[in-house]
């Protein structure tokens, strides 16, 4: 419960930034429902109190005006609600991306891609229900409820109480019962949707293995199972919605019968009873959307809770921005001093590692699989903070070096290079968007990828399309290397850059790296003897 309230507070904090728009939406909503009620009210009153034809022409005029105002106000209310929703959704997305940037890369390593996609797309989209269909409708229903109950109470207190009861049932009780009933379904729905997303991604990425190992039927079965689970949960959701419509109609029908019967029993004046009954029948408009809200709000709140969880997650490391700057020309030393590290308590990955790197040269790092070689490189890059000891740059603890300085002194490259949608030029110049063509070509030449690029029809302007597999791993790695050379950091940290490559491509990359050993420090993790044989010194972890 506390968590739900905190989540609602969190959602409201976005709405609070645009109170004026919310106020307009509420005013327009109230006007629109007043117009709806005004139509039967004025018709009944005119019919009962007048027989003059001129009054009927006034009635027609006022009905036309009411319909017109109703249309305009309703459109305006919907427009404002969606304006509020899109504005706040953009705000949420902005905050989410900002947060993901602080969590990257350490805290994102353990999340599945399906999870991200669900988070960034459907979870954020789900908040629209809250922003567009909850906040102002609740305020409108509250204002309308107070006004209507006051009106009916003036006719007769009991009629006021019946109206109050019907509105409370429709606007509060039905949605909260539905909310409680559907609580589990909301979470199940999200989980099964995210599982289905994950399976589709895995199948798409692992299609070669699926083909090779004859896993087609097995994977299809898994896909079917996950699809069936999602269908089952969706059906449950729809069933609940049907029930709610039932309850709603029952409340309106029984409420109206009680209203008229009690009015007659209590001897309310017949003309007043007729007018107020007509008003009562047409007064449910503001409460019906609320009674349908429980189901929707549940999924919305479970999405919001997931988003809030990410927003509250603490980054593995906090960026340092306020220390005295270091400049890369000043690079003097890099060392690990009594470094220990564990991802989970009591499961040490590295223990008491001591290393002093030279300022220039080619240092290889070797070790059995799982010994923590990649982890050690993460610590050198400060993707994670050490559990004990320290990593020092220029004899200053890396925790007291501005993050931008760490990244300008150290460049990192891993086993695979991710290419982004854009041209090859953009991809090489990723870290230096204003780099001249000359600098980009120089970097590409150093990485031995220039000739291949020139053989493409649009050379450096060749577009790379996401997901298309028309660039080999070797070419990708060489583009990654060119990116690193352009970055021109005095320390290059490489995590098995040739592990996916054939001998020829490995040698091309190694030759490119090797030449740099007199200019900068290269720290390279590798399993391959052929790669490590070129190193000046090989350290075993
Ligand atoms: N993000 C993580 N969260 C928890 N445990 C992790 C994480 N990343 C790695 N590990 C674990 O830490 C240990 C060291 O992993 P690491 O990738 O650093 O080893 P490695 O020596 O580079 O292995 P390999 O040579 O196979 O790449 C492994 O047991 C691994 O399962």
Topology:
Layout: H1 2-15, H2 19-49, H3 53-103, H4 113-133, H5 135-155, H6 157-181, H7 183-205, H8 207-212, H9 216-265, H10 270-281, H11 288-291, H12 293-312, E1 334-342, E2 348-357, E3 361-366, H13 373-381, E4 388-393, E5 396-397, H14 403-409, E6 410-413, E7 422-423, H15 424-428, H16 437-446, H17 450-454, E8 463-464, H18 473-487, E9 491-495, H19 503-514, E10 521-525, H20 529-532, E11 537-540
Parallel strand pairs: 3-10, 3-11, 6-9, 9-10
Antiparallel strand pairs: 1-2, 1-4, 4-5, 7-8
Helix pairs in contact: 1-12, 2-3, 2-5, 2-10, 3-4, 4-7, 4-12, 5-6, 6-9, 6-12, 7-9, 7-12, 9-10, 16-18
Bound molecules: adenosine-5'-triphosphate.
Adenosine-5'-triphosphate (ATP) is lined by residues 109-110, 343, 349, 367, 369-375.
Description of the structure:
This protein is of the alpha/beta class and 541 residues long. The chain folds into two domains: 2-312, ABC transporter transmembrane region fold (Up-down Bundle); 328-540, P-loop containing nucleotide triphosphate hydrolases (Rossmann fold). The chain is 64% helix and 10% strand. The chain contains 20 helices and eleven strands. It has helices spanning 2-15, 19-49, 53-103, 113-133, 135-155, 157-181, 183-205, 207-212, 216-265, 270-281, 288-291, 293-312, 373-381, 403-409, 424-428, 437-446, 450-454, 473-487, 503-514, 529-532, and strands at residues 334-342, 348-357, 361-366, 388-393, 396-397, 410-413, 422-423, 463-464, 491-495, 521-525, 537-540. A five-stranded parallel β-sheet has the order 6-9-10-3-11, sandwiched between helices. It has a four-stranded antiparallel β-sheet with strand order 2-1-4-5, with helices on one face. A two-stranded antiparallel sheet has the order 7-8. It is elongated. The structure holds adenosine-5'-triphosphate. It is a multi-pass membrane protein. InterPro entries: AAA+_ATPase (IPR003593), ABC1_TM_dom (IPR011527), ABC1_TM_sf (IPR036640), ABC_transporter-like_ATP-bd (IPR003439), P-loop_NTPase (IPR027417), Type_1_exporter (IPR039421).
